Amino acid sequence: MKRKRSAHAGGRPPKRARDADQSAIATAAGIEHPVLGRLYPEVSSLRHYLLSRLPSSSKNRRRKISQLGLPPHGQDAGATRSVDLELAQLLDSTLVGVPPTANAPNREEAAEERARDIESFSQQLPAGTTASTFKPGYFLQSEIVDFVVWRLFRKSTSHKPSHLLCHGFQRSAAHGQNGINQTAHSIPGLVSYYRNTYVETVKGPLWCRLHALLGQGGDRIMMDMLLDCAIFSSVGHSGNYFQLSGVPASELKLGSILNNPQAVVAADNSTSKKPTNLVSENRKPNAITFVRSRMLYARAALNAKGGVRFGMRHIHVLNRFPDLEDPHQTVHIMRHVFPRQFGLHNVFTSKVDTRETAMSFKDYTLREKEIHQSMCRELSDNVGSEEHVLKWKSHIPKRLRGDTVALVNKLRRLNQRCSYMELLRHYCPVKVTANRHTLQLAAKLTCEGPAFILQTGVEETPTSAERNGSRSCRVSAWR
After folding, report:
1. Whose CA is closest to 367, among 396, 340, 397, 344?
2. DSSP one-letter code for 122
3. Three-state SS at 18
4. Domain count, the chain
5. pLDDT higher than threshold 60 for residue 4
6. Element containing residue 96 per DSSP (H, E)
7. Is the pLDDT of residue 120 over 80?
8. Same-domain pairing of 458 and 355
9. Which residues form a coiled coil (predicted)?
10. Chain center to CA of 66
């Protein structure tokens, strides 16, 4: 019986062991980003996204993308070409945010509809268009971007689609009405009236090489990514990103991802102890406005003598807790300044009860009742224990400890030292003048107008209507 030959027999080299770290970055799980994780249920690197979209039978293409940027076997890192390094940096530094609609179950119907749109788009191209393929599986990168912009306008019911790749484009009819100088473009039915740097970047040579690396069927992957997903490019090595494609992140609602339990837990682990009405609404920054009617048109606060009281009102929290040596009062004031950190009603995430106020926001001047309810809710059975109550009153969230406490103490000291009346007299002085006409009116007339002029010390030139009114008042007084 013959003995089997070893693997090294016959002069054949032994099989090379597969590198364990050749696709460590590509096969990693989704990236956890504190901001993007609240907007998109799935966030991953561009490399990982492309690998997840390639079919499992495309082993060569998957191997090329996963090993791109790694030095060849047995060579140093300097042997990698600069083009491959740039492309590998693009794959690893670019993030892709996948919205919930991108993973819809009816993807086959969406693919058929997209195929019909491709046929319609190719038929609308002018006859003299050159260097255009527009055959399934053989799209150029520039043609893909043009089709994406055209389809976004086609499916949009508004004047301009809410998409970064559509900035600077208009429909031809709207363009002629506005009288803007036309810029030649290859997208049928659209004109460009200013440059779109996002389109220029996606049409650049680096993205063209990435499209070529995907091979057959890569055009559909690129279309799906540009149409359905959001792309974020890294700004150096600072950990910051700017959006390159997709619906602007500023127009997305944070509440759209609240149905994802994992995203909610990763975003904020402390909301489980808060009432549901405190996290039921997430307002955009531009929706939080100052109530001008309360600030500029409210009635002035009066003192006991009926005069105007300048500065903070007596019910203001800084005036109700004047003891600078009491740390519990400092924490109590911090509950008014940072209500969201303490789990109280706030303008960012809380709904306004229309039964309490007709304004768009509540009046947070007095919070004692709400703070007491929050203490009873958190302490529950230990609310009668003095030790637990003192511990609760002195508790400060981790985010507010240190310099924030010192800043609030400084605010309290400066408020006590500040004389608002003297500041008003210094920066807004009022000259008190009195003439013979004013003294005569003060002596003879009992009307309210001249008395108000004498009290405030403000003299204005009387108009003709005021002269007639004062004359009639003088006649009625003499009678």
Report:
1. 344
2. H
3. coil
4. 3
5. no
6. strand 95-98
7. yes
8. no
9. none
10. 33
**Whether the predicted pLDDT of 452 surpasses 80:** no
CA distance 409 to 82: 56
Within this chain, do residues 423 and 447 fall inside the same structural domain, yes or no?
no
pLDDT higher for 2 or 213? 213
- 236 and 89 in a single domain? The answer is yes
Residue 190 β-bridge partners: 171
Looking at residue 459, its pLDDT comes to 44
Q: What is the C-alpha to C-alpha distance for residues 374 and 356, in angstroms, rounded to an integer?
A: 18
CA distances from 172 to 81, 113, 189, 194, 345 (A): 44, 24, 6, 14, 49
Residues 321-370: pLDDT tens digits?
999 999 999 999 999 999 999 999 988 888 888 777 777 788 888 899 99
Buried b (16+ CB within 10 A) or exposed e, 24-44: ebbeeebeebeebbbbbbbbb
> Exposed/middle/buried for 177, CB within 10 Å: 0-12, 13-18, 19+?
exposed
Q: What's the pLDDT band for 442 if we cut at 50, 70, 90?
A: low
As to burial, measured by CB atoms within 10 angstroms (0-12 exposed, 13-18 middle, 19+ buried), residue 330 is buried
Name the strand (E) or helix (H) holding 277. none
Tell me: do 257 and 304 sit in the same domain: no
Contact 173, 189 (CB under 8 A): no
Nearest residue to 300 (alpha-carbon basis) of 424, 467, 429: 424
Whole-model pTM: value is 0.50
Instruction: Give the end of a domain, one of 241, 264, 287.
Output: 264
pLDDT tens digits, 163-181: 999 998 888 764 444 444 5
Taking alpha carbons only, the member of 357, 337, 358, 343 closest to residue 277 is 343
